[in-house]
From TrEMBL:
This is NimC/NimA family protein. Residues 2-91 form the Pyridoxamine 5'-phosphate oxidase N-terminal domain. It holds the Pfam family PNPOx_N. The lineage of its organism: Bacteria, Bacillati, Bacillota, Clostridia, Eubacteriales.
Amino acid sequence: MQEVFDFVKKCQTYYLATIEGDQPRVRPFGTVNIFEGKLYIQTGKIKDVSKQMIANPKIEICAFNGQEWIRIQAVAVEDDRLEAKQSMLESYPSLQSRYSATDDNTQVLYLQDAIATIATFTGEPKIIKF
């Protein structure tokens, strides 16, 4: 999992795919954190992406570093604990002007049953499960 975190963190921007009804939705994200041995992402509960992950928690993430790309398929599981939210916001101080661990909007989710594939155009893909 650490290798997946390092890859995504280094890319800075990754793309998160969800489903809304029968329509795929993809948008850029930038938050990723490890807390209590799990890989977390963050959003706001008022956003459509939050509603989509609650309705169907199966997600995919994709990021590209210029030479390799990573695809992560997982189930996004909400963790509403104050400690999980605080850990994310401490990792991203710039978010603290818009989010708070105690507000009703901040949402953190960890990736469960994740399968990450790191690939290039020339080499064999590397599979990481966590």
